[in-house]
Design a protein that fits this description.
alpha+beta, 6 strands, 2 helices, six-stranded antiparallel barrel
């Protein structure tokens, strides 16, 4: 009795699993992955560094300014960061992950947003 039921309904079960798999793959409002937050600041670059947009850096607070580091190398400083960026770094225990949005090599400035 049990095996007959499984044999008769085998195709139906497979189709329902395929529909569920399709629903998992289709993105909607709740499956979108948010990018970096809207907090960004301009950092004065220090020296000639091999950086490109999309690189991740560590942003730390030192006194009333922010310092961006790539590993142990300090790559930039923000002497007067916006209050929302400073507050975001403070809320994450004084250290945050950042991403380089834009590089202005001629001006020696990098726009870094916090993730």
């Amino acid at each position: 009795m049990g095996s007959d039921f499984i044999d008769r309904g085998k195709r139906t079960f497979a189709k329902s699993w395929d529909r569920a798999r399709l629903r998992l793959r289709t993105s909607d409002l709740f499956t979108e992955t948010p990018g970096c937050a809207g907090h960004s600041a301009a950092f004065d670059l220090l020296g000639d560094l091999a950086l490109k947009p999309g690189d991740t850096v560590v942003v730390q607070r030192e006194g009333c300014e922010l310092v961006a580091r790539n590993g142990l190398t300090t790559i930039g400083r923000a002497p007067n960061p916006p209050n929302d960026v400073l507050r975001a770094v403070e809320e994450s225990c004084g250290i945050a992950k950042g991403m380089i949005d834009r590089l202005h090599i001629a001006a020696g400035v990098a726009e870094i947003s916090l993730c």
